[in-house]
């Protein structure tokens, strides 16, 4: 008796469930709830939702966080709901997601607080904007927005109030309306976070914006760790995306993660925004986090961007010096996110023609955990609107991943402007797929998909490649793609082919 074959684990795909310019009509949680079944049907397993804590205004995206314990429940900072909706709306959305098997990842903004309730006097020194280890003034007193009393919420959920001594720095002196980076001085031990706990950019990158939390203060540590446990009781989560991890204490973050894992037994998924193109720095960070953590593969995004702006760029080098190549288990691969929308980060922006190729390179390969961007799936609003990217093909690429991108991977990275690869399938996900892409003229690759497919007729699930490919007795087929495009070839009779082309990208309909 041979050993019983185990089912092949399904490919997982996550989506960033927002973009920067989602309308501030407070209906986003409801829109996501209504879209959840469609997302699940196209292969999305987990959704990273925006920061749902009360921001400085009803239009704030949540990175200007005011109160971690207000999920749209208390009348503060201009309204009850957040930009995304009320707490009731949030709970309903998460409940729907859980019912259909979609996990929710929370966006935790733990570096700072914004929109203080009152001013407090404290002694400070100004520091150099480009080197925060250099002071550029003598100590003196300022009147800073550093007092948080959360009057609307009172002591519900947490009794902790925040004062000047809970912060390491701020950026505004109300006495003279001067903006600068002010390091807050307390006793002789108060300083920026230790240099080995935050990124070394700008000398010491502890300070980013607003009122910077001091994780050397025991009351701060306790309150935020308590918040993590509290949040998980309010909404059922599968993981957390941590904002700005370069800027606050790694020691605290390890403590926070350990606390959650001990509380829930089953480890959550944790990913950090460590936006940097230095692979060495990323490796060192993962080492210090004991590799129980993932990072977004920023170097891969920069590679995509460069290739999209280079005529006849060398596609065979697309994964050179990337996290997914060197630490695939810890790499979240992506094409865009809210920080790389074209008008926000031009050096990381990807030309529209290249996006389908980039998405195929993260979705249809073995390594990495791919993250689809809401703005690519549904389009971008605001002053610089964009329609859904990839000519509407992104849902089909995600579905091809879920249905066919399994098994051994054979690369045909043998020509600079035209590459291909094959996924052979597995015993229970047997169909497999063959991908060809070109960033120049029309391309073709003779590729081996396996003798078990002899005689089958394969077509492009995207509908971009013309005709059929008949697989020969030797298991080879001649697969083509249009110029500056790609094709994803699968047996035309493969299970699930009828599911393609059904995604509704009009999330804003009445």
TrEMBL record:
GO molecular function: calcium ion binding; hydrolase activity, hydrolyzing O-glycosyl compounds
Keyword Hydrolase in annotation: yes
SUPFAM superfamilies reported for this sequence: (Trans)glycosidases, Glycosyl hydrolase domain
Keyword set, alphabetical order: Carbohydrate metabolism, Glycosidase, Hydrolase, Metal-binding
Keyword Metal-binding attached: yes
GO biological process assignments: carbohydrate metabolic process
UniProt cofactor(s): Ca(2+)
Top-level taxon in the UniProt lineage: Eukaryota
Residue ranges of domain Glycosyl hydrolase family 13 catalytic in the record: 12-401
Family (UniProt): Belongs to the glycosyl hydrolase 13 family.
Full protein name: Glycoside hydrolase superfamily
Organism: Calycina marina
């Amino acid at each position: 008796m041979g050993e019983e074959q185990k089912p092949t684990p399904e490919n997982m795909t996550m989506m960033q469930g927002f973009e920067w310019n989602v309308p501030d009509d407070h209906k986003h949680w409801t829109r996501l709830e209504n879209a959840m079944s469609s997302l699940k049907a196209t292969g999305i397993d987990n959704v990273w939702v925006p920061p749902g804590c009360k921001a400085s205004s009803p239009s704030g995206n949540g990175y200007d966080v005011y109160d971690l314990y207000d999920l749209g429940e208390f009348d503060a900072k201009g309204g009850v709901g957040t930009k995304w909706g009320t707490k009731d709306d949030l709970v309903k959305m998460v409940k729907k997601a859980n019912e259909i098997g979609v996990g929710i990842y929370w966006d935790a903004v733990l570096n700072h607080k914004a929109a203080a309730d009152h001013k407090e006097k404290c002694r400070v020194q100004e520091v150099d904007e480009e080197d925060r280890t250099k002071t550029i003034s003598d100590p003196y007193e300022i009147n800073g927005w550093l007092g948080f009393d959360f009057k609307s919420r009172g002591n519900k959920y947490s009794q902790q109030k925040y004062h000047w001594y809970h912060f390491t720095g701020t950026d505004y002196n109300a006495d003279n309306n001067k903006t600068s980076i002010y390091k807050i001085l307390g006793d002789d031990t108060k300083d920026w976070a230790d240099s080995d706990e935050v990124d070394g950019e700008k000398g010491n990158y502890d300070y980013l914006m607003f009122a910077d939390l001091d994780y050397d203060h025991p009351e701060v540590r306790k309150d935020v760790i308590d918040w993590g446990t509290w949040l998980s009781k309010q909404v059922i989560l599968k993981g957390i995306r941590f904002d700005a991890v370069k800027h606050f204490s790694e020691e605290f973050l390890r403590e926070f993660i350990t606390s959650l894992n001990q509380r829930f037994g089953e480890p959550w998924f944790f990913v950090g925004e460590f936006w940097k193109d230095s692979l060495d720095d990323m490796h060192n960070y993962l080492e210090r986090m004991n590799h129980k953590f993932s990072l977004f593969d920023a170097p891969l995004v920069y590679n995509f961007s460069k290739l999209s702006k280079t005529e006849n760029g060398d596609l065979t080098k697309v994964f050179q010096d990337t996290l997914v190549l060197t630490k695939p288990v810890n790499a979240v691969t992506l094409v865009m996110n809210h920080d790389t929308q074209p008008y926000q980060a031009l050096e990381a922006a990807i030309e529209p023609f290249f996006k389908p190729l980039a998405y195929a390179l993260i979705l249809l390969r073995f390594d990495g955990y791919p993250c689809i961007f809401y703005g690519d799936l549904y389009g971008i609003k605001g002053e610089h609107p964009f329609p859904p990217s990839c000519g509407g093909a992104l849902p089909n690429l995600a579905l091809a991943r879920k249905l066919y991108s399994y098994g051994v991977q054979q690369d045909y990275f043998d020509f600079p402007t035209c590459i291909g690869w094959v996924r052979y399938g597995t015993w229970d996900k047997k169909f497999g797929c063959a991908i060809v892409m070109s960033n120049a003229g029309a391309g073709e690759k003779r590729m081996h998909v396996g003798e078990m497919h002899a005689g089958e007729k394969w077509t492009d699930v995207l509908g971009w490649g013309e005709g059929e490919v008949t697989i020969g007795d030797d298991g080879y087929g001649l697969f083509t793609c249009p110029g500056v495009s790609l094709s994803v070839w699968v047996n035309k009779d493969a299970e699930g082919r009828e599911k393609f082309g059904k995604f509704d990208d009009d999330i804003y309909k009445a």
